[in-house]
Every structure is written in C-alpha cells, then in structure tokens.
Amino acid sequence: MNSEDLFVEARKYLPGGVDSPVRLFSPYPFFTKKGQGSMIWDVDGNCYIDHCLGYGPVILGHGHEDVVKVIGEQLSMGTIYGTPTENEIELAKMVVERTPCVEMVRFVNSGSEATMSAIRLARGFTGRNKIIKFDGAYHGCHDDVLVKSGSDGVGKPDSLGVPEDSAKNTFSIPFNDEETLSHLVDKHGKEIAAIIVEPVMGNVGCLQPKPGFLKFLREVTNENDILLIFDEVITGFRLAYGSAQEYFNVKPDLVTFGKILGGGFPIGAFGGGKKIMNMIAPSGGVYQAGTFNGNPISISGGITTLKVLNHSVYDSINEKGGFLRRCISDSIADLSLDLSSVGLGSMFQIYFRGGDILNYEDVKKSDLDKFNSYFKALLKNGVFIPPSQFECCFISNAHDHETLEKTANIIHNALKKVFK
Ligand SMILES: *Cc1c(COP(=O)(O)O)cnc(C)c1O
Description:
Blueprint: H1 3-13, E1 32-36, E2 39-42, E3 47-50, H2 65-75, H3 86-98, E4 104-108, H4 111-126, E5 130-134, E6 147-149, E7 155-157, H5 164-167, E8 170-173, H6 178-188, E9 192-197, H7 213-223, E10 227-231, H8 243-247, E11 254-257, E12 268-272, H9 274-277, H10 296-308, H11 311-334, E13 340-344, E14 347-351, H12 360-364, H13 368-380, E15 383-384, E16 393-394, H14 401-418
Parallel strand pairs: 3-15, 5-8, 5-9, 9-10, 10-11
Antiparallel strand pairs: 1-2, 2-3, 4-12, 6-7, 11-12, 13-14, 14-16
Residues 110-112, 115, 138-140, 198, 202-203, 231, 233-234, 258, 268 line the site of pyridoxal-5'-phosphate.
C-alpha cells in the first residue's frame, strides 16, 4: 500500500491516523519505510534528507553502526529483567560526568515522565505547590504543563480533560520577560516550588533566551528558595557535551532529559544534586516508579551514543549548523525576504516573519500559510523538516557538507517559489 492508502487505513484504527498529533499534515503524512544516516525513505519510493530526525533523538543519524551492533547484542540477552543492571550505573556515571548540575539521576521512559517527576520532586522538596512555566513551552503531555496563561498568568487548561483546579497551580508567563516574572515572584514567591524552562525553546521553533535571561532566572530562584528546572529534553546532549547548562553556563537545581539520551530508543531522565535526588523513592518520600525504567535497550543505546558524542563531535556538528544557518541567511538576503533565520548548535529554523522574536506571542505572528507552502516545497524536493512553524529542525552527525549544501539549495529554491 502507498501512503495515501495506508492513511485511510490508519484513520480507521488510530485516532487521526497518527500516534502523536504533530505527525499529521495535509493531505496525509508519508509513511516511512526506513532510515539510514541522514536520509529516510517512504513507502512510496521517495527519499528525503531528514532534518526532523524523530524530533531530535537521532543525533548520530539513522542506524548508526555502533548502536545497531550493541542493541543486537543486548537483544539476544533479553530486553527487560525487572532487576538492576550494571549498565544503568555506567549511563548514570556518564550523565553525571557531563552535566554540571547532576550528581544523581533516575531513568524513566519519556520526557513527559521526566518533567512530571521533576515537578513532583520540586514540590516534595520545597513543600510548595505552584510552578511557573513559559507561554508556548512544551514540557510533555501531563496535566501540570498542559496549561496556558489566563488572567495574571494563572494557568488555564490547554486541553480538554485537564481540571481547572490542577491548572491553577501552574503560572504561565511570557519567555524573556524579566518584569512579569519579577512581579509574579514578588506576589507569589512563597507558594512557588519551581520554575521550569526550556533553555532554548525548541517547541516554538527555535527561540533563544536573550543574553542574561537564564542567569536572571537563576538569581530570582536562589533569592526566593524556588528550584530551577531546566527541561533539556531537546537541548540535552545536543547543544554541548554538558548540554545547555554548559553552553549558557547556568547551573539549574534539576534537569530533565529524553530524546537523545536513549540513542533512538524511548527514555527520559531527571537529575540533580544528591540532597534533592535522595528524596526520590525508595531512598525518600517522593514516589516514582516504572516497569520499563532503566530498560536495557534504551540504556545500551544511550551509553553507545554518549560514547560517540565526544567534544570533537560537538565542534563538528555545531560547525555544520553554523554553515547551514549562514546559507539560509544568505538566501533570505539574496531574495530580499523579511524572514528570520534562527538557531544555534545543530538546531535551526526559519521564522516566517522579520523583526525581533522574543516569545511565543511573537512567533505566533509568523505567516503560517507561507510556512506551510515552504514545508510542502521542501518535501516535494526531498527535504523533510517538522511540518510546523512551532517545531525545530535538526542536523545529525551523519549530515555531511555535501548533504547540507543540497539542503541549502532546496531551501533557497523553496523560498523563491513560496515568495515568487
Ligand atoms: C519532547 C519534549 C518533551 C516530552 O518528551 P516525550 O519523550 O515526548 O514525552 C518534554 N520537554 C521538551 C522540551 C520536549 O522537547
């Protein structure tokens, strides 16, 4: 069956025909047959340079030889035991060694579980109930964070099924806005357990903190005994050897990881200093558990991936990111378009508007129709990016300069076509 037929079939059995909403695009998503290196192939016989990369995890490219080998070996020895394994210690040590704020870590199964547990831990540790997040930030799909801003930043449910009563415990305010945050903390500081922030907002495109903003968050939280949680599910092991906290030189109290950490297999993790982390069950009273926590496949995938990701890989992949962003900026200038090429490290995106972009409100003013035409033009010419202005595009270490030049050309031609 081709993608069109498969989508008809899928919609009979899977709500919307997909297992996660972002995967849906019109008229129907392509169904993937395989991936290798920087490329993926659909069942219709098309092949694409992949800049979606599973929404971030695939930093070494699809089917990396070391990962395939290690997972094959692990598979033949069983996939889950319900007992501790030595490899969990090894991956934990690697995370601790790389990550400034981490002395101990708990492995879970997804980024959503990681943020859910980190928030519970922050509440348990501080004895406070409220949290602050930023408008447009994505921290997974649980009640505490499926919350948008109501009056005075008091949270309102951002999904059916999220109780008003639970949404009220989450404030949501604009990113990069020190004044609003100060006001909120002046008024409610003693009730606030944590501020949770994506150091780079990868779920509204690719939005950077303005200089000093993360340091400001660190100061405000220190002064008010609030915990600072960096949600590094995207930036973790992507931006630098020591993740965004190393890149921006700001040390949070807790960090959440996911995506890259499993080497392409489902995983999440949260970590921090010993004093806080020892509050997690069974050593402490904050409950967290999981049948598949620390499962041998994801842990092996993670160990193998982090072994490959040494300092020189980050130098190389970040240089490639710089190269592609320069090409995109040049195209935008050549074509005299009022668009913004954004990104850092191996992350990139084009905002379909010009001017300063500091927060979600600004991103929402992008020309979404034009973005959609751009996405389709890329797809038609063999480049796959996430089908949304509010997602981030990625580069893997398997993307060489020749591939990136192709991407750059296809982007140039797509922009030309969209704005002709
Ligand atoms: C993807 C993502 C999550 C959720 O992770 P899942 O593994 O999809 O549950 C949480 N936070 C951020 C910043 C993410 O990008």
